[in-house]
Amino acid sequence: MAEAQAQKLDVLRIDRAARPRRKLPRRWPLWVGLLLILALAVTLLGTNRVPSVQVAEVREARPGEQQTELTATGYVSSRRRSVIAPQIPGRLVSVEVDEGDAVKQGQVLARLDERDARVIEARAQADLQAATQRLVSTRATAARAKQDLARAEQLAKAQVITPASLQAAQAAARAMSAEVRLAVAQRVAAERAAEAARLQLTHTVVRAPFQGTVVRKLADEGAVLAPAAIEQQNVGGIVELVDLSALEVEAEVSEEQLPRIQKDQPALVFLDAYPDQTFRAQVRSVRPTIDRAKATATVNVQFESIPPGVLPDMGARVAFLKEELPPDALEREDATLRVLSSSVVKDGGQSLVWVVRDGRLVRQPVRVTQKVGDEVVLAEGPPPGTQVVVSPEAKLRAGRKVKVQTEGG
What are the Multidrug resistance protein MdtA-like barrel-sandwich hybrid domain coordinates in residue numbering (predicted)? Predict the structure, then answer.
């Protein structure tokens, strides 16, 4: 009985060893394909990436570079430059000049409404006349009081009048003398008031304090002006006047370089507006103060002769020289091209530079004659201002598109 039940249980038992095993799918070819596609995409992206290159410009050597002690930048300014404003408040009636006009010292620049000033001047004249008449009348009264005193003294000696009457005459004479002094003082005050009124009237006419050129017109007819001018904000200015015969360059020199600057030291000025011209100059003065924020001092460099066409606030570069240049040094036509020596590479015995033109690389052969500092002199090469790659990599190819990166960035 027990054996029969055991056999039945054996029949019901599951044979796990006899169950067929499922085959796992082979997915590794799919993963390999994905990895290959990813590697190909990375390769394509690296190939199409635009490389960034650092560039420098081919420049033309300027006169006096061998004698240059140091260089500094600055701006053209004038020793005489002023915002012309009225000395009294008032309404602007007319402006007699325009921008660009050359004016002489004392020339009329503008006129203010003078009606109020004329009323004040007429009243002051009337007060002066009244004070004058008051003084004349007081002096006449004082003269009579003096005569009365003399008569009273004679009568007192003859004992005709009492001492009290004599004292009254003396007091009256002293009082009139005081009245005369008061009248004189009042007349002097009236004269000063009349002078002030006349001066106020003359201040309605604004004149040029010095000879110069009108560079800006700051107000038009009808404006109500106050007698003040604040830098960068016009409150009462009518015009800005600049003496173009007193132009100079204000150059900023670092404080550690100041010992290399001396008064009357020769210099050359290069203006951004006239890159092909060089102007002789010399150091006029060093401003006796240091800009704490920039650690620089201002050096005033005056032109040997004021060049035509130069205007205030033009950008300038100053080369301070070790010694004076010969008279014909600036007229020589031997300017040479220079470029950073790290821009020139050798390729098969030939010197060349990589020029960036329209965002793409171009091979440009050059002929180097000598090395000066960190630059080389080119006898043949691209024109001034051409951008060339600094320290080019060997993998650069002609026609490849590149992104220009400045030397500071």
Answer: 84-226
